[in-house]
Design a protein that fits this description.
207 residues; alpha+beta; Deoxyribonuclease I, Chain A; six-stranded mixed sheet; two-stranded antiparallel sheet; 5 helices
């Protein structure tokens, strides 16, 4: 796909399959780094690369925060709850998973906020936060950054295909050094998430 440069800090964690976040780039990666979140038996981490573009350094972050880890049977239980069935039989199990994941994401979001606000370069963030726009996770990670969907998206912006037709849990954030050219959601069945595409111009390049 003409992305010859990449950074992939994969973690085996005893699993024969490599897993983790990867960043591909058309431009040489000058520097890179990874910050692993607590509970290191899981692959969640904050990954970044520094790229020189138009004589200016920029930093790209990506991450995947703690999942609710719903399995097929959990989704079935949620559908039953939505239909008003088996409340007391299903609610405690679902609530326990949600509560655990929310606590983990809060810790992770605090770490991401602290790291990104101290970036020495202009910032673009993309990632699966596993949380909705009115959540603590969203507001902590976004901080003072712009949300690409709010600038160029429309409708409810659903990015997750299961459970609810209103879940927007994947995001592009960027600071004021960039000008957003487009935000696009690609509806496909490659994953239970829909792919997001955004184009940005550095302000100094756009002048």
């Amino acid at each position: 796909m003409n992305y010859p440069f990449y950074y992939f800090p994969h973690f085996r964690d005893g699993n024969p399959l490599n897993s983790g976040n990867v960043i591909f780039s058309r431009f040489p990666i000058i520097d890179s780094g990874t910050v692993r979140f607590p509970r290191p038996t899981l692959p969640e981490a904050l990954v970044f690369v520094d790229i020189k573009r138009g004589g200016k350094m920029i930093r790209i972050y990506t991450t995947h925060l703690q999942s609710n880890q719903f399995k097929k049977e959990d989704i079935s239980k949620i559908e039953e709850l939505k239909g008003g069935k088996s409340f007391w039989g299903n609610f405690p199990h679902i609530f326990s998973k949600l509560s655990f994941a929310i606590r983990q994401r809060s810790v992770q979001a605090d770490m991401v906020n602290d790291i990104m606000k101290n970036s020495p370069y202009p910032v673009v963030f993309t990632g699966d936060l596993n949380d909705v726009p009115n959540s603590y996770t969203y507001h902590q990670v976004r901080g003072k950054l712009n949300d690409a969907f709010l600038k160029r998206g429309f409708g409810i912006g659903r990015t997750f295909s299961s459970i609810s037709p209103t879940l927007r849990i994947d995001y592009f954030f960027y600071d004021n050094n960039f000008r957003l050219q487009q935000y696009k959601r690609v509806l496909s069945n490659y994953s239970d998430h829909f792919m997001l595409i955004s184009d940005f111009d550095l302000i100094q390049e756009a002048k």
